[in-house]
Amino acid sequence: MQRFAEFFSGIGLVREAIEPLGWSCVFANDIAPDKARMYADRFGHDHLVVDDINNLTVDDLPNDLDLLTASFPCIDLSLAGNRRGLDGEHSGTIWPFLELTADYVAKWTAPKALLLENVTGFVTSHGGRDLAEVCGRISDLGYRIDLAVVDAKWFTPQSRPRLFLIALREDLATHAFPPTGEVTRLRNTAIRRFQGEHRSLPLVELPLPEPPHTSPKRLIDILDDIPANHESWWAEEQVRTLAMHDRHASRVGALLLGTRDGVATMYRRVRQGRTVGELRSDSIAGCLRTANGGSSVQFLVDCRSGRPRIRPLTGREYARLQGAGDFPITVGRRQAQSGFGDAVCVPAVKWLVNHAFGFLLQDLPQREPVQTRFANDPLDAVAAGS
Ligand SMILES: C[S@@+](CC[C@H](N)C(=O)[O-])C[C@H]1O[C@@H](n2cnc3c(N)ncnc32)[C@H](O)[C@@H]1O
Asked: Do residues 151 and 34 share a domain?
């Protein structure tokens, strides 16, 4: 067993993903009592500290950690947010995490690996300066860093691309190689550009395999069977008077003709002062969000009966879209939507940790660190904007 600490633990879906791989959670922290309740109902209270990360010190942590994970708040980094980046009050909680990590390395020994997760906008936030600052701090602690985007839709029927910063202690990164510069699903143009523009950072690439192309399940496969007279279905009048732009209204028309199994998901958005319904057109759910405001709840548009019916997705459907269908739900729908909407996608994290850190679960001989750049570096082309 390797031991890990889970920061920004939320309801615990990082733990849900990686404990079955052989990682044992020995510390978890989150500020939100409602999420902590869901966490504790699944995993118990042991190791869970419900507090502001700013209040933690190195003495609060166990002294033999192999991995630290941090899926820190995305509000200030996401398109829908305010774009304050890591200066923002929420996403800026990465700084106390990094300070705690530095204190830990100074007092004990550097954990073998770190794993950070956030929205893909992290790569370009403040023109790349935010990510560069984070990478700089991590490299000062003796790590090599890989960057990869993993999308939940490769595992479950939900679009949820997320950036993972994968840091390996340099004595353990002997199999890592300089970034190839090739744009792939895992390492997109923004990552390649960032790598090309930050040559002084110890950026590497781990030999990750090709991820799956599509989820084995479709949206229709994860839906609950909610009786037609259930109160969660909108009244006919409410459905009829929902405003939609033509493109979205024609998607409803297509559903009525049987495309995409007759079902799609929808968000309500305010466009030019008017609330409108917007449907996805690609057979999967949109990215789940934490359900704080009315517009962040995701709805099902169900045309299988020959007329459009609308209801919010259930907490269990949210859980399934995060690949956590069996997770106990001991809270009401809004709280479940909030907890699962803000969480990570379990099979996506499992896939990544298995392939990036799986070798740490075996005893491998330690070798000399690799150089991080080759002559005739292919990243030259990316940095030059080609
Ligand atoms: C993206 S969510 C993490 C979700 C989690 N990985 C999961 O699977 O449920 C970010 C989390 O950071 C927590 N958070 C926000 N500010 C915090 C702070 N100052 N200290 C500790 N946790 C904080 C939020 O409560 C939220 O659960």
From this structure: yes
